[in-house]
Amino acid sequence: MAHRKPHLPEKACAACGRRFAWRKKWARDWGTVRYCSEACRDGRYGAARPAAGKAAKNA
Ligand SMILES: [Zn+2]
């Protein structure tokens, strides 16, 4: 029989709006996860994308 991928839950990131799927690291608190990454959670989403506006740091 063919092995089917399990369907993972998804939600939209509250910071960048991108959809992201369940990850094992969120197994304990998927219900409260709102962001796709630590950068989004920390509000650093703009810093990772120069076009987003804020240019606080220049690495
Ligand atoms: Zn995000």
Quick tags:
59 residues, little secondary structure, two-stranded antiparallel sheet, 2 helices, 2 strands, 14% helix, binds zinc ion, DUF2256 domain-containing protein, UCP037205
Strand content of the residues, in percent?
A: 5-15%
Poorly predicted sequence stretches spanning 5 or more consecutive residues: none
Give the termini separation. Answer: 51 Å
Our count of helices gives 2
Order of helices and strands: EEHH
Rg from C-alpha positions? 15 Å
Helicity, in percent?
10-25%
Give the beta-strand count: 2
The main β sheet shows up as: 2 strands, antiparallel
Oligomer: single chain
| Associated small molecules | zinc ion
Strand order of the largest sheet: 1-2
Mean pLDDT comes to: 82
Q: Any idea what the shape is?
A: elongated
Secondary structure category: little secondary structure
Summarize the structure in words.
By secondary structure, this protein is mostly loops. It contains two helices and two strands, in the order E-E-H-H. The protein has helices at residues 38-41, 45-48; strands at residues 10-12, 19-21. Strands 1-2 form a two-stranded antiparallel ribbon. The longest helix has 4 residues, at 38-41. The chain starts with 9 loop residues before the first strand and ends in an 11-residue tail after the last helix. The model has no long low-confidence stretch (mean pLDDT 82). The structure holds zinc ion. Residues 13, 15-16, 18, 35-37, 40, 45 line the site of zinc ion. This is DUF2256 domain-containing protein. It comes from Roseicella aerolata. InterPro entries: UCP037205.
